[in-house]
Write a structure and sequence with these properties.
By secondary structure, this protein is of the alpha+beta class. It has helices spanning 8-59, 61-65, 67-79, 144-194, 209-290, 297-321, 336-349, 371-388, 432-437, 455-465; strands spanning 83-90, 93-96, 121-128, 135-142, 331-333, 354-360, 367-369, 394-405, 416-425, 469-474, 480-487. It binds adenosine-5'-triphosphate and magnesium ion.
Amino acid sequence: MARLNLSLEQRAVLGVALIHLLVLPMVGGLLLVVAQETLTSSFVQRVRTVARGVADAIEIPSVLDDAKQTGNLLDSVILTGEGVYAELLDNGRRTVSALNRPTVAYTGVQDLHFFEHSASAYFIVLPINTPGHSAEVRLAFDKRATLDNIARIRWNSVKVLLAYAALSLALTVAFVRHLTRPLARLRLSARQVASGDYERRLSADTGIPEVRDLAADLETMRCELVGVTAKLRAEMAERQKVEAQRQALEMELRRRQRLETIGRLAGGVAHEINNSLVPILVFAQVVFDALPADSPSREHVTGILRSARRSKEVIKKMLTFSRQLDLGKLELLHLSEPVDEVVRLFSTLAPPGITVAKRIEAGCPPIMADATLINLLMMNLCTNALQAMHSTGGALTVTLSRRAVPDSGSGEELRGAYLDLGIRDTGHGMDAATAERIFEPFFTTREPGEGTGLGLAVVHGIAESLGAVVLVDSSPGAGTEFKVLFPIP
Ligand SMILES: Nc1ncnc2c1ncn2[C@@H]1O[C@H](COP(=O)(O)OP(=O)(O)OP(=O)(O)O)[C@@H](O)[C@H]1O
Ligand SMILES: [Mg+2]
């Protein structure tokens, strides 16, 4: 059988309506029977008493012989108000009251109960026991007033019972609402919890202990579930973090492997070329010296020497990158000095429209480094910065500060105290694809012949040999900041 999907309120109303439908007709019927019985028996008793009185008066011996007296007695029945017919039959002689209602006539039968025979009149026939007379008196009384009363009581009962039923239903609705209001509030709170508001408390401000207990149980359940959800969320976040770290490390490893392979190859090639360049430079110089001062060939040999020296510069950079350059002896070095020097140099070199500034934090500790390498590293970074601001102008700022990278810092290799050398420019910046490749040897975005693409490869090589890390932060149009983090010994 299909289940009725009704609310508590609807069910209560339906239940009360059904009960009233069964009970009220029975109660109404019972009341009506009692009222009817009372009214009819009172009527019968009353009219019989009147009839008996008249019969007793007629039985007095002289009365039957006096037509006037008998007529008066019959009239007195009608004059009671309820009488509608009065007749005396004496030795075959019929006397009727002049006041009889014309529409009523004796039917030949008398009534024993109220609802017998005629619908409007109640007939009583009483014998008159007087010697020498065979007589009987026939009287009728109006039933309509009693019937009207019964009908009025019936209608009033229906009205009262209907009003009672309506009042009961209204009270039921009010009571059920009073009962279900805390439940509705509880349900609302539960829905809010289900839709993500996990901190919403589940409580019921009610005097009904069952509902209060239910709310308390649900609240306990919510607390437990919220705890579980928070734990699961934290676990998921932790897993995502670990996965992101793993991916970053994997990318870094691949980048390093690539750089290492290229570095090794570049180192080998550079070494070979360097070996060939030395005799070229020496013999070209010998030829140059041997030529007379006005020889037109001197210019050609100068060209050879210039190209060979430039190639030697490139080779030097390649060797630095691939760490085949003699790193010299590392010593404790305060970076403020090379920073001063480079800033002074670039202030002179910078074209108008570009300002060069420095910010050195007081008390920066020394690091293990080599002054020439640090110079080379800063020269490359500052040259790039000037080139990035070449057409627009801007500001180059070199900073030096102490920095502590906490344990939960940006990656495994960065942890502890560092000296932070920052080179910031307000130039054209880089997109992500460029920034990804800048440390690759020979990667350049400059016009052919303008850049070797080895500057940052050298920076990377130097930083790595000193145990430092290079970080870059750049976006198109927003300038670039390089940070070299040297470990503080
Ligand atoms: N400060 C900077 N702002 C914008 N782009 C930069 C910056 N520094 C480096 N780059 C980009 O990184 C590329 C590689 O730089 P890198 O110094 O290695 O080579 P290069 O400057 O092109 O050539 P070289 O240094 O040999 O003259 C550059 O071509 C440029 O696109
Ligand atoms: Mg460069």
